[in-house]
Amino acid sequence: MGVATAKMPKNEKKISKCPICLEEKNDIICIPHWEAHGDISEHKMCGDCTRLYTKNECPFCREVIVKDELLALIRDLVSDIKTRSNQDSHPDHLASFLERWELLEMEYESNPRVLCRIAKIVVQDDELKTHLRHGIEMKSGWLRDAAGIFFRLHSMSAAGSLNISDDEKSLLKEAYETIITKIVPNMEVSGHHYGALYSQAAVPCISAMRSGVGKAEMNEIVKSVGNLIIKLYEKHRRFHLDLGIAIPERMIESYVKVLTEEVWGGEINDPIFLAFYN
Fold first, then answer.
1. N-terminal to C-terminal alpha carbon distance within the chain
2. Helix (H) / strand (E) containing 225
3. Which residues lie across from 65 on neighbouring strands?
4. Amino acid 55: pLDDT
5. Which of 189, 196, 200 is nearest to 243 (CA)?
6. Residue 160 CB contacts under 8 Å (≥ 6 apart), including other chains
7. 198 pLDDT band (50/70/90 cuts)?
8. Contact indicator for 151, 107 with CB cutoff of 8 Å
9. Please, what is the average pLDDT of the chain?
């Protein structure tokens, strides 16, 4: 999965002093770093300290450390996106990935390095990139239903927070542009889908506010999505009288209120608020 760990010295079963608890133990091992810099041979802890230590950074150098449960979560997330988008899945199944990502961001919002490295692993998954290219080429509906994940990854990439290739950056940008310029404008008129799309932009925008990663870029994505929804609403509302009710039904009102102030700069400037909540 592309996780780099430092070459560590062989851990021998001998009695030595744990540098954390300062007790003599026979199970002291080097801490597995995600991307180590320099000599980490003395970055060790015993089994008891390892079990009690809950942070995702080395207590000596503050570098991110590898945890099996975190890697498993990333593998599951990537696998589920590929599997469900290959099936005739309900849109809510794909949208649920964004909820899982939001929880992940909430857990690691105080350590943006972890978030960026998780995002990098997801972006650099070869199978996912192939799948994403096919979705862009076919203008597949699953991209719309999983838009929030790609909005977030694109915002982090555009902010320069991910150490990825130019081709990977272009792929994320193309996915974002395909969703808002080709898929959504040309889909069947649906207030629920329009409202859900704004929520797909709102959720990662709130996450970006918490961590600070890609915040300005997510703000611009929210504005682009919001203006698109208003454009489609104005275009179709004459013959689809339920749009004014259906669109806000799929929005998260508490998030909309935050975006009104933090992204749009107040109610008078927020077209979503003026159209659906005024």
1. 48
2. helix 215-236
3. 33
4. 80
5. 189
6. none
7. very high
8. no
9. 87
C-alpha radius of gyration, the chain, whole number: 22
Check pLDDT > 70 for residue 191.
yes
Look at strands 16-17 and 29-30 and give their pairing: unpaired
Residue with tokens 């009690």: 52
Q: Distance (Å, rounded) from C-alpha 124 to C-alpha 168? A: 8
Distances from the Cα of 133 to the Cα of 1, 89, 158, angstroms: 20, 19, 19
5 band by pLDDT with thresholds 50, 70 and 90: very low
Cα distance between residue 254 and residue 31, in whole Å? 41
Q: What is the pTM of this model?
A: 0.81
Residue 98, CA distances (Å) to 93, 111, 122, 182 in order = 10, 19, 13, 22
| Type of residue found at 229 | I
Task: State both tokens at 80.
Answer: 């589920």
Burial of 76: CB neighbours in 10 Å, binned 0-12, 13-18, 19+: exposed
Write phi, then psi, for 162 (nearest 5 degrees): -110, 135
Determine the pLDDT at residue 69. 65
Q: Give the Cα separation of 266 and 221 in Å (integer).
A: 17
Q: What 3-state class would DSSP assign to 3?
A: coil
